[in-house]
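Teaching soon. Invent one.


***
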Amino acid sequence: MTDTTERLEVDGFALIGRTFEEYVHMFDLDPAALAGQTVLDCPSGVGSFVRTANERGIDAMGVDIAYGMSPTRLSQLANADYEHVVAQLREMSSLFEWGFYGDIDGRSRYLKRAHEEFSDDFERNRGRYVHAALPSLPFNSDSFSVVLSAHCLFLYGDRLDREFYLASLRELARVATEEVRVFPLSELDTNRYHALDWIVKTLESEGYTPEQVSVPFEFQRGVAEMLRITDV
């Protein structure tokens, strides 16, 4: 991956979401193998993975600090972030590979669908969505078979320090019985997270088995790996 000074400009943390289909690719998931298992999506944002996973027989829950808001306020913020993100994509389209989405309009449709499906499920099945934030989750140890974490850990390396990320990974591992998967391994500028080697070595020294694994998904240019943590 080549270094670049271009980057998406995101104030705070973007409140957007992904679909089940996107998760299958970015985490290289086998939906059939997940059926009947417990899965945590953290942070879940306004994504529709939890809804679709439950429809497919997967016992999935989502966690996000934003779930303390009213549905109306949540949608207002998500809509504003959607507009900002799409505008950024149009300005910096060269930072991205468009094979999965086709083009910016395709990406926009995924964002809209994720939010719409989430909003409906958030209203109907509030128990699936827990108001909490890393690095402290309100679950007993070994509560979930698999834990997924997308577009938070590592992405915001300019505003969250490596100690926060390490503590968050330990917490995700605490509540998992089988594995934790984290995507992507880059920051907003598409460069590999600068403290990733330190985090991997620290996790190894604590008895975890972290692996950087290629996935069949690339949106940020050159970013097509996840961190898979086993021996949790």
In short: The CA atoms of residues 64 and 225 lie 23 Å apart. Strands lie at 38-41, 59-64, 129-131, 144-150, 176-183, 209-214, 225-230. The longest strand covers residues 176-183.
